[in-house]
Amino acid sequence: MIARPDVEAAAARIAGRVRRTPLLEIDPLVPAGQMWLKLEYTQHTGSFKARGAFNHILAARDAGRLPDTGVVAASGGNAGLAFAHAAAHAGVPAEVFVPETAPQVKVDRLRALGATVVQVGTRYAQAAEASRKRAADTGALFCHAYDQPEVCAGQGTLGLELPDGIDTVLIAVGGGGLMAGVAAALEGRARVVGVEPEAIPTLERAMAAGRPVDVDVSGVAADSLGATRLGEIAHAVASRTGVRPVLVSDDAIVEARRAIWDGYRIAVEHGTAAAVAALRTGAYRPAPDERVAVVLCGANTDPSSL
Q1: Given the DSSP bridges, would you call strands 71-74 and 244-248 parallel, antiparallel or unpaired?
Q2: What is the dihedral sign for C-alpha 108, 114, 118, 122?
Q3: What are the start-end ranges of the E strands in the chain?
Q4: Strand partners of residue 38
Q5: Contact indicator for 99, 76 with CB cutoff of 8 Å
Q6: Residue 298's closest CA among 130, 116, 145?
Q7: Angle (CA) 176 177 178, round 5°
Q8: Considering only CA atoms, which of 252, 258, 253, 248 is closest in space to residue 284?
Q9: How far apart are CA 41 and CA 296, in angstroms?
Q10: CB environment 42-67: b (16+ within 10 A), e (fewer)
Q11: How far apart are CA 28 and CA 162, in angstroms?
Q12: Please, which pLDDT band fits residue 10 given cuts at 50, 70 and 90?
């Protein structure tokens, strides 16, 4: 449903609106040729989501489909922040539906960005259902957190910033928008490994079933990786490009998050730490000469929990 040309078009559309985030070469966390951390948490609003939000909203504006009533989004937090930020730059209002379990730090930031925040239910799916109804009632532009072509293509612009010669990119997966975009951007150039908590195996279950299926949502990373099922776009791209699913435990995620702080003084979300946990636990083992990039995708977290 998306391919590299879609990602390249997104990169042109959002140029000057998002940051080209740093790439930090590090001593390999495990035996490998070379290893980098892609510091995407330094992106506007603290996560990669700004890329897809700008691409979706600007594409709608260019096509004359951005109404004065603005945008409506559902989010565990990060997507809402991104859509609120992009909407403000486009000069339209944003209304964001989040679960009642959303971290207060994210709710506070949403309000600081000028968004109207509506808290519904305890899971992302419940907030998403309410947001769809609100968009239909108001005529606002509906913004899906991870399963719209422009959103996925925008997230994939991260992949275009990685240097040639990278063999593997490790990415945390919830609904799969980032994974889909990066896999499309790097198709035929690098493999993508999708890392997810054992408690929320959306990618692993979808690949096993041959289609997205509902999963239970729980655990330490539920606020950022808490989609109840993988997106249709993500499943299509993962199937086409051979994305490999890898599972890690909550304990491994907590330990990886602490290790990122201890080693680099970077405070990331639990969901972000899942990608590092895959290396630390051996859930993914690089070859001795493999060149690996790990995406640190979000840092909207309460650092006191470290």
Answers
A1: unpaired
A2: negative
A3: 23-26, 34-38, 71-74, 94-98, 116-119, 141-143, 168-172, 191-197, 244-248, 291-295
A4: 23, 295
A5: yes
A6: 145
A7: 95
A8: 248
A9: 6
A10: ebbbbbbbbbbbbbbbbbbeeeeebe
A11: 17
A12: very high
Give the percent of the chain with pLDDT over 70: 100
* Token pair in block for residue 175: 């609904």
The encoded tokens of residue 156 equal: 């994939």
User: Residue 156 and residue 179: Cα distance in Å, rounded?
Assistant: 8
Token pair 């559309």 in the structure block, residue: 13
Radius of gyration over alpha carbons of the chain, in Å? 18
Q: Which of 214, 267, 207, 209 is nearest to 242 (CA)?
A: 207
Tell me: the pLDDT tens digits for 210-255?
A: 999 999 999 999 888 988 899 999 999 999 999 999 999 999 999 9
Read off the tokens for 266: 């970077």
DSSP character for 183? H
In the structure encoding, which two tokens stand for residue 14, read together?
Answer: 């959002």
- C-alpha to C-alpha distance for 100 and 3, rounded to whole angstroms: 35
**256-275 tens-digit pLDDT:** 999 999 999 999 999 999 99
Q: Which helix (H) or strand (E) holds 179?
A: helix 177-185
pLDDT above 90: residue 175: yes
Neighbours of 27 (CB within 10 A): 8
Residue type, 295: V
- One-letter amino acid identity for 203? L
